[in-house]
Amino acid sequence: MDWQLLISQLLNGLQLGMLLFLLAAGLTLIFGIMDFINLSHGSFYMIGAFVCATLVERTGSLIASVVIAVVIVFGVGLLVERFVARKLYAHDHLDQVLVTFGLILIFDTLAHLIWGAAGMTIPLPAWLNGQIDIAGVIIPGYRVLIISAGLAVVVGLFFLVTRSRLGMLIRAGASNRTMVTALGVNIDRLYLVVFALGAALAGFAGMLIAPITEASIGMGNEIIIVAFVVVIVGGIGSIKGAFVSAILIGFIDTLGRSYLDDLLSLFLATRYAETAAPALSAMTIYILMASVLAFRPQGLFPPASSMR
Amino acid sequence: MKPSAPRRVSWGVYGTLFLFLLAAPPVLVWADQPFYMDLLTRVLILSIAASSLNLILGYGGMISLGHAAFVGLGAYSVAIPSYYGIYSGYLHLGIAIAACVLFALVTGAICLRTRGVYFIMITLAFAQMLYFTFVSLEEYGADDGLLIYQRSEFSGLLNLENPGVLYYLAMGVLAGCLGLMNRLIHSRFGRVIVGIRHNEPRMQSLGYNTYRYKLACYAISGAMAGISGFLLGNFTYFISPEMMDWTRSGELIFMVVLGGTGVLLAPVAGTAVFLLLEEILSAFTVYWHLLFGGFLIAIVLFGRGGLHGLVEKLERRNHSR
To answer: What is the ipTM for the molecules in this complex?
Structure first.
């Protein structure tokens, strides 16, 4: 077995898992607390990448750019919540799907207007462009950074959710919204903060991936669907569920793509295995979601005492 | 309490639309305007898909965000046999319907165990699954899709290569689907479906196996969307996975809502306005999606009932005068 390949695939899986978690964390809270389907959550991912790329171009400092860009995306999140999303909480899901679909069109076109049709790259500073050699296995340094940045956010988010007053309100909102309102919490402000926080996390994910893939129009529209799968598998409203299922799906997707043909060729002729493997590996995460929905519709880790 | 009867159709408006569609091809051929002929053909074909979505979404309350998968499946049912040199239209149509019914029954059996947001998400997931399957099929062009070099053959009965024939075929199929839907909706089956949308537990306690009714409805809708895909593949001479992308499903929902959900003929009007607007705005500026997105949001927030609601409101005002 090729250990170099295995380890780098495992790291890729972990990296995808981290990105998915950053996207899904906000999505699951918005879903769980506001009962709001936000298809345009992927737009924040794209906006984050573009804003960060622009700032890097102007300032030359990656870290400063990321910090400022996160704040900007947070601000965009505030605006979207205040002027669009808030009007939709009382509407049915069909309306939410349509309006957020409209938002995607608007954001994609705005990105086209502002940044042009071509994508933007974020050049990596030299200290991140290197490779790390651990016992003969070579790992790109930037991947390690993505994973550790992701982990840092995970830890931060866990402390925020389990130890702070805001986190308490978030957890309360996810398990019983009506009760939180009845207790006299300023629910509008809670919604506003949760929405913008989710947007900032998604934007941060976009900034992390942009140096590898580049910032491009519509980059969030595909990964957001996978993030929805993560949310459903993990259980709507559950941060812990989102984390576990994001990592799980990251591994399944990455390892499926690289090893499924080997696995299939144990049972099938190589020729068939090579044809079937890509199709099957593209399907695995959706099969996982379908089986979760069929056998455990509330997801793997539903929020405690969820009334729904 | 009886399930409420489907809303009244304003025949005046739709009758005019019908006559217009019937008379359009000779006039357009005479005026040498193939562009508008193509546009109208596309309206007719996508109207079939939008109407089929209306059956489950408008009448049955099942919000599917994966309906484009059926359209794509229908188009691939033309493209893949043609790739092997089989051009029989009967076979293409048969495969399209069979594949869509099968896909609807298998995925529907799982989807329909869920409701609400879960249903939206799982229909989306299954459509994505099909999308990525076709993306990964190198043999059939993967991302780039397949060209269809020749339209389906109906043993000399219909020559689809003639744009007029394809146009009237699409119109006939649309009329047939709408007629069938009209019968369905006013039958016992349709009343049960509408009843389920209003209150599923009540229908269950009345002794109906609501799951089976919904599954049957889902399969019928899928088959109709498949036929629309069959026509679309023939019309465009081309199919790629992009045609089943989830944003396509979003557009189909918009066509239905724009026309008016749960009104038999409204999605036809919605599709027509959608495609016309797309043509006009995209000719006007490359950034037309900006206006289009704004329009979509405005329709949802301020235009309850879609175009049908608007027409009804105007008619009521005229009557009260």
So the answer is: 0.84
